[in-house]
Amino acid sequence: MTDNCRVVVLLSGSGTTLQAILDQQNQYCYQVVGVLSNRPDAYGLERARSAGIDTRSLDHKHFPSRESFDLELMERIDKFKPDLVVLAGYMRILSHAFVKHYQGKLINIHPSLLPKHKGLHTYQSALDAGDKEHGTSVHYVTEELDSGSVVMQGTLNITPADTAKTLEQRVKVMEHYLYPRAIDWIASGRITVEDDVISLDKKPLGPQGYRISEKSIASTE
C-alpha cells in the first residue's frame, strides 16, 4: 500500500477506537476517508463528523436479510475506494459475500489472545478459565469468526484483583495504542501476508503475530 492508504472504518457504538485511530493518523501513513455505521445514532458518527470525515449510516433493521444489507453496505463503502476496511466495534456478523469482497484488506481487533476466547464476553471467559494473561488481537477477517491471521497482540498479566470491568479498561488502553500502529504497518507495507503467514519487514511472525506487553506500551507513553 502507499503513504496515502485510504481507510474506511465501520462501527456500531461510541467510537472510542475510531477516536484513537483519528488522533494518531497524522503520525502514520493512513488516512480515514469514511466512517459507516449500522446504527444511525452511533456516537462514533459524530466523532467522525467533528473530525471532518465523511459519514454514512445504514440501519440494518430496514433490510430483509443480512445478505441484502451487506450488499448495500459494500456499495457505499466502495464509493470511498478504500485500500483497507477497518472494523472498530462493528457489532454485526459479516456475510460470506462481504468477507470475500474485501478479502485481504479487512481487519478487526478482538479483545482476547486469539485463538483463545472467540466471540463475546472475553474478559469474564478469561477469568472463568483461570488464565494468567489476557489481551487483544488485531487480525485479518475471514469467514470463520475471529479466526483470521493475527497481525499483532497486546498482552497483560491478570492480577488477583482483576474483574471483567478492570480487564476491559486495561485492554482498551492497549487497543488504542495497537490498532493505529497495526493499520500503519499494513498501510506502509511492513506487514505482508502470504499463504496466511504474516510477515513484518519480510520476516515471518508466529501464529500470534507481533506481540507487545502492557508494560512495554506504558513505557512508550
Shape: globular
Question: Order of strands across the widest beta sheet?
Answer: 3-2-1-4-5-6-7-11
Write the element-wise H/E pattern from the N-terminal end onward.
Answer: EHEHEHEHEHEEHEEEEH
Q: What is the radius of gyration?
A: 17 Å
- CATH architecture descriptor: 3-Layer(aba) Sandwich
Number of folding domains?
A: 1
Q: State the low-pLDDT regions, or none.
A: none
CATH superfamily: Formyl transferase, N-terminal domain
Count the DSSP helices: 7
CATH T-level fold name: Rossmann fold
Give the distance, in angstroms, between the N- and C-terminal Cα atoms: 28 Å
Strand portion? 25-35%
Binned, the helix content reads 25-40%
Q: On the 0-100 scale, what is the average pLDDT?
A: 96
The major beta sheet can be summarized as: 8 strands, mixed
At the first level of CATH, the class is Alpha Beta
Q: How many strands in all? A: 11
Q: What structural category arises from helix and sheet content?
A: alpha/beta
